[in-house]
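Regression test attached.
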Amino acid sequence: MRKLLLPLSAVVLVMGARDLHAQSRSISGRVVGSDGAGLPGVTVLVKGTSLGTATDMEGRYTLPAPAGATTLVFSFVGYDSREAKIGDGPLNITLLSNPTSLDEAVVVGYGTQSRRDLTGNVATIAGREIANLPVQSFDQALQGRAPGVNVTTPNGVLNNPPIIRIRGVNSISLSSQPLIVIDGIPTYSGNNSAVGNVANNPLGNLNPADIESVDVLKDASATAIYGSRAAGGVILVTTKRGKKGQSKLSYDAWAGWSSAVRLYDVLGAQDYMNIKNEAVSNLNYNQRNRITGVPASNVIGFLPSFNADGSLVDTRWYDHIYRTGFSNSHSLNFSGGTEKTTYYTSANYTNQKGMLRNNEFRRYAARLNVEHKLLDKVTVGLRFDYSNTLNSSPASGSVADVAFGTAGIGRSPLVLPPNISPYNLDGSYNTNGAGIGPGANRNPLTGGVLVPGYYNPVVDLDNNYFTSEGAQIQGSIYANWELLKGLNLRTQFGLDNISFEDKSFNTPLAGEGFPGGSASNYFRTNKRWNWQTTAQYDRTFATNHNFSLLVGTEQQKTDVQRWGATRTLVADPFFTTFQGNYTNIAAAGSAYGNNYLVSFFGRLNYNYARKYLLTFNVRRDGYSAFAQKWGNFYGGSLGYAISEEDFWKNSGLGKAVSFLKVTGSFGKVGNNQGIGDFVSQTTYVSGLYAPNSTLYFNNAGNTSLTWETSKKTDIGLSFGLLQDRLTGDFAYYRNTVDGLILDVPQAPSKGIPNNTIAANVGSMRNTGVELNLRFNAIQKKDFNWTVSGNITTLKNRVLSLVSDDQPIGQATSGLETVNFTKVGQSIGELLAVQSLGVNPANGQRMIRKADGTVVQYNHQGTTGAGSTGWTILSNGADNGTNTTSPTQAADGVYYGPVLPTWYGGLDNTFRFKNLDLGVFIQFSGGNVIYNGTNAGLHDQRFWNNKTDILERWTPDKPNAKYPRVVYNDNISNGSGLIMSSNIEKGDFARLRNVQLGYTLSQTQLGFLKIASARVYVQVQNAALVTNYTGIDPEISSNNTTGASANGGAGVDRNSVGQARTYTAGLSVGF
Amino acid sequence: MKLALNLQKTAVAVSTLLLTFGGFSCQNNLLEPTSQIQFSDQVVFSNPARIALQVNGLYSFVKVGGFLGGRVQVYGDIRANDFINRATNNVTGTAVWNHTLTETSVNDVISMWGAGYAAINQINVFLAGMDANAGSFVAPTFPSNFAATSLNYQGEARFLRALCYYTLLQYYARPYTDGSGSRLGLPLRLRAEMGPDANGLARSTVGQVYDQILLDLKFAEDNLPLTYGATAFNNITRAHRNTAIALKVRVYLTMGRYADVVTEANKLVPTSAPFVAPNGVAFALNSSITGVFAPPQETAESILSFPFTAQDTPGTQNQLAYYYLPNSLGGNNGEYSLNNSTGGVLSEPGFGAADARRTSLTALSGTERFLTKYPTGTPYTDKAPVMRYSEVLLSLAEARVRTTNSIDTQALALLNAVRGRSNPTGLYTATGLGSVSAMLDALLLERRIEFLGEGLRNTDIMRLNASIPGKSTIGSIDPTNPLYVWPIPSTELLTNNLIVRN
């Protein structure tokens, strides 16, 4: 169901129609929506006349029609009109909602507006488009659904927050995530879990089936009312309300299976041993006299292990880590209303098991939305939502900056030798200390056991757990008093409290917890209150001058606390929880924060005859975290609806172009999202020097720190062609962020804590165009085809930083820095030395240095003075001159951008009789990805390799893709030196969702005695078209919020890809 | 109409009232939040207890796992040829071991520099704060003798600063003996850095940095207390006067100023046995070497060690027992085994088969031999050793041999004092040694055996401008090789426009 403005014109017309008295027979029937519920207020007209009526609260109508009438026309704002022949008996009809109808109400900050009158840029996504998708949080489902909104799923771990970018990255050090507002109350987003292995996105607490609509505010005009928090855009979520006279009970359920796709092909045991032993012999070749006369040990280290039945151990590690996960979801809601009271209440249970073992998401949620007319002019309401979610994940190595963790099971099947088994012959775990046992493999350097250092993932998966459980109460009470006609005074008090209980347990048997075992518990509370008071006055003067004035205040206080502890050295393996007995305990995870925002704002909307439109917003905000606390923000826009002009309506053009509006907006908004609560203060904290307490300098403050501001320009064109069968929007946008809050890198030799000081320096610009089209291609009685699509372009430029020649690096999980943000380029481009491939003469990796010399690397080492392994190549031959290693900083070349320069979605909906088919494609491209996983997959330590290593250089195959394998070489593949051979294009098109549904007919429903029913099957992530060789082009190893997400996109390091999910579902209305 | 107008007025009044109430009831104090867990910089010098906590804080920065709480000790040994890297993990020193470090190597090149300078700035900020607040150190908040306490604290701070600069010089700069300190050293940061300016600072010469180190150590020696009382823990984990003198011995030896080594060491070492420091904390050799490394590692031999507790651990992959002790011997990974091939210390003829340092501080697991000096597995509370009295004795012996150019009698006695404790049958005699160079070789070998896994090896090679020997498949590094010293980290190169690459 769509939100609807009161169809004023229809009411007037119906009133008029009731005065006519020239009927000869009565036609009656019922009008329902696609969900089977009756539609009240639908205009029913006898075709060719002005005779008509409107449906009642249950969607029923009775119309006295003249004898000659043959056809009725049903129309309703927000729905496609339909005609139907008058026959014998009741004439029942189903209307299909039309989501981009120009008359729908758009939710804007602190109110709603008709899309026809809108001058700001707002995209709307209907709740039903995302209600039954197999996702954990609604934001995951926004991919490709709206222009200007880029949603990236960085990995396939359940309830990991997606990366949402509205019109590009809008900050470098702060958050670029949009502000998420649920029913007027700003809520929490991003990963809130204290346990690195498990993600907890609080938005997973909201039952997607409760969502009426999601509106995305993009330009300054639309967002300025949120002033200081609007730079990254605003996502307004509106939950469902009851409707007068409609008593409804509905039940939605789905169930399905998820499994992994596109896993890398890695070497089997025999190929692995062949390659590694070749590498060992290449290393030892000619070693005898090179190292000060010491003969190198020449151990052939990689030897077969055998199973009990004598067969070769050939472990496919994927089989121990991935699974087919079963998921199901059930939502029940009932709603209704009387003249005085409306209500909507729902309950939801979902349990989703991911493709990774131990990865699970579970939610219980309940909601009550009530609105009651207390007095003639006073309405009060309540919105209340409670939910409990449990997130459980193995150490996936894919979330929260742990890409290089030895425990990460995204990585272990790529690294672990296939010729060792997870179990010993007696069935016990194969371990050696913390790590996996070596099997028959020997260290070629010493002859001792080979120490993989990596853990046995089976031990971890069987014994460890990492969970984050969230309990959220979110709600508000509000009262609206219509003091005068058109003057509404509204006050709303909201609470948003969430607690997180995060736990981790590491077994003492092996792995991270070896040898003592460890258990950590953390408890976090986020407490927020928000109080908004507004007065709005709507009035029309002299027929055509329509004014709407809003003034208001808002205050918001947020407190965050976390405490926790880690216990180590478990007394007995019996204990697997924190409450057991352990020898040691140490405090862990303590955190404290509080912040306060106070605001005054106003908005004026004016239009003349809905032709000339104007909106102006102002907001003044004070925020506690800044040293300079107050900021003023504004946004204004103008619109001209040419199609409302009589000359247009009466012209031939007017027949073809039924609606045409141009808009332009400009404004300045701010950003405080993600700033530390006390970052502007110079502070000390206390720690430990063994048994004694300490006090030390921990933050260099900045007494001039203030708002980051974003100047947004938007020029838009909205149109409707062919009686609005084809509607669309086009927009050009330009966001210039000034006074960027940057964690300005300080020379490490200064020893400033964290080597950064937050300051307002630098600027950045995002520009692009958006196009959104919707076409009702075929509209027949039995066949319907609607196609809609959107595409957005993005060009990001960093205009200034602290200094033009000082790029700012962003490390991946603290270990490897590939991304650098530099003036004149787009944010976070990749810096890599230029690989020229493999020297056919000797199989060595060739790199071009900045001065143009080409050098090559020999992991065997080189001889002579200054031997480094690197020699200069001249005329393609090894001339033997030793040289220094190329370096990323001196010899690196930039590759970019890492943000897609184009992205969008294409949605096709087919309806044939009772069948419907939805095909949704998401696409994106123009970006590059650093495929660091590929570097690891060709590393010549004991690590397993991708099967294409078989195409390595050998004397017989001089023109090879990969260098001659030399044992322990981690340079030539890119592990130790970032090189361009691991940079790839990230273009892709994904068949994100295919859904086939069947809606039961009235006859069938009558037989079953239910109001409506639909069954469907769908595939999520059905197919992917890309040249990217990694597991998934959407992948990102960097964090999803804050600086590492902004300046660190486009890095693929050991993360797991997205699952493919098949589901079948059912929606029934009673 | 009148009614409507009144209604309108009322409405406007009510709206105004409510909005005003809503807006101005805003609590302005909420806009000035204070943290419950962080102190403002304005209050940290306001009483003696907080200042004392800050002094502890300085030690905690020097002893972080990435610096002298573990990694420095590990890197000082694995660069050379006594250990074999088993885990091939760049996070745990593989690139240090096989000399493939680059300026972007995070866990060694970038991390050690950052940790060292973080400690230096904490010290500089503390010293500046003590100066700036000196006027407020008065009764009744401060005791009347606080001026003396303040000098003690400043002595500790400057001792730690000297230790930090000395440590960084050993990795990021050419040895003093290469050009008598004329080569490029480190940016010499002595000012408290709390703001955004002064990112650019050129490298002082090696000699200039050593001058500052000696200046700081002189101040420390002059102002540090003689002792912190009878509790061994305090005297081992905080710097007193003899600690400063011991570091001076090490610094002068590293610089090749052997006469000064003798002068300083003589303050701590009597001319004849028993060798016990005559003033201040009475350093002495422990009767057995194994006792030195048995928890809690608090014998009179330990001059300075950094302590850990279950609440304050060295941190992941910094723990000495994690590096050297395999699971089979009660540790964890055993990232490094002892090199049992030719060239490794195990195969040195001077390292006797019955030497307690072989029989008690190393152990066999499978075919590999491991160092067992750090016996405590999780939560890894072995102290990280920085200086022991045996080092002072051997340094003095070496300096005496070099200054006298003879097989000095006292030097021989000192050498045998250290050696004889662990290897009573292996004592050297003047005739047995036969030459000054043999005596020096014996002394260097003794240091290698005695301080195995304590991080002194790299300096003992580089202070003589000698080649770093090769091992396994890794070649040796001669002093002209660019890999002889670590690169300046890329993070410094990006932010300090006056820095010069190595």
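Expected vs. actual: identical. The radius of gyration of chain B is 27 Å.
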